[in-house]
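Q: Could you fold this chain for me?
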Amino acid sequence: MTRRRIDGPLWTLVGAIGVILITRLVILLTNLGRFEGDEGVTGVMAQRILDGHFPIFFGIQSYQGALEQYFQAGVLALLPDTYFTLRLVQLALVVIICVLVYVLGTKAIGSRSGGAVAALLYAVGPYYSAWKGVRTHGGYDTATIFGLLVIVLALWMRRESARAPWIAAAIGLCAGLAIWANYLSVFLLIPGALWALGSARGSLKRLFPPAVGGFVIGILPIIIFRIQNGLNPPSGTGTPPPTGFADRVGNLLSPVTGQFLGPGGTPAEISRWFIPGLAVMIALGVLGAAAWTRRWGIWDVITLRTGRRKPIDIVILGFLITPILYGLSSYTWFTGEPRYLFTLYPFLAVGVAAAIFALRGRARAIMAGVVVALSAILLGWTMTSLQSSGGFLPAIAEGPIYSENLPAVADALEKRGVKSVYADYWLSYPLQFAGHSRFTVTPYEHSQFPDIDAQTAADPKPGIVAVTAAGAASTRKDLTAKGRTFKEAEVDGYTIFWDVTPPRRG
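A: Sure. Below is the predicted structure, expressed as structure tokens.
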């Protein structure tokens, strides 16, 4: 029996995983990883799963599957309920993504060394990829994983193989789970599905039924939710601001693509050296050259032919369809961060690695070293710059929210016998997670848990928690102006109001 030796590509993959663990732990354990309102929702969901509630989607929304919260519930069953332990699931998921990037890169580039470079590029950024990947914002990571699995399985499937029906079923299952997790998986699913259909031509009668069966099982949570709430339930997030197709595509071009690549949205001292516009021009130029070079292979993928296609065509096609899908969705209106492109980060790593491996000999090695080094410098510089300037700091009209102080606020509420409070959305659910079942917290708006709100409403004397800045002063002024009596105490930058008589609700 021979033992497989750990060679250069595998050592590089191990190094990439090490980089992921180090950089993402730095994010989680410093001010870059402060907990915020949406993460509080997922944390409360995980706690409620252990209490016998079984959500299908994020809060009251009709999208963003809750699968990651079931994993988190398992962690919280074994470890203390902290912001760090909750996000250990995300840390594990991004490691899985890195391994899948290695597998996809090996297939797409035709070289294990190419796959290893792709994994390393994924590990070293861009910063938003690193930061968002370990945030518990819903199903972003699982959508990426299942989307990548669809592609890897599609590349593995051979229609004449006895295992082909099982692989087809697995492709369908992963596609369904990806859609449940997050609709952003569509950037991965469309090229992966086209490849799978092309591979199955001539055996569709044999392979299509198991694929459909797997898909139905994967989207079963969506089916159950639709049965319970109607075929077209409200999204739970309201109506997006009015934007047109051209507006959204324009936003994608600038500023979102620059943010996606890394230089965009960085502090001024960084963007002077890593120029967002230049990065976008280079990226579009490389994509255009790749699309032209592989045009007939891409055409074969689209038309379900196999003759001229290559695995790298999946990656190129994924980027080519992005502007169309991005522009068609009325929900891609936000330009503050490239959240809608998150599932494309594996394609970015594989695509850049493929461009490097288009070179030969010493030029390839030099270019690989330069690109990895520049990516690492940009990631490290962005992290240190943001950390030194205060890190990630959620802020509302009341003032900044320092989530690291909320466990002390929760203890103070319990000490004073407060059973329920009202607070701003971005404060309420991180506080609810910190307090768990010791009290209930209801936000002034964007409520996600109606039964928690009902408990707060039933409390004869609900309290109020506000940021000790404009928020506390405004609350105090409002209570006094309306003749209410109350007690108050400041705790680590927050002000607790309790024994409010008569009570103020909302």
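A (continued): Residues 62 and 233 are 7 Å apart (CA to CA).
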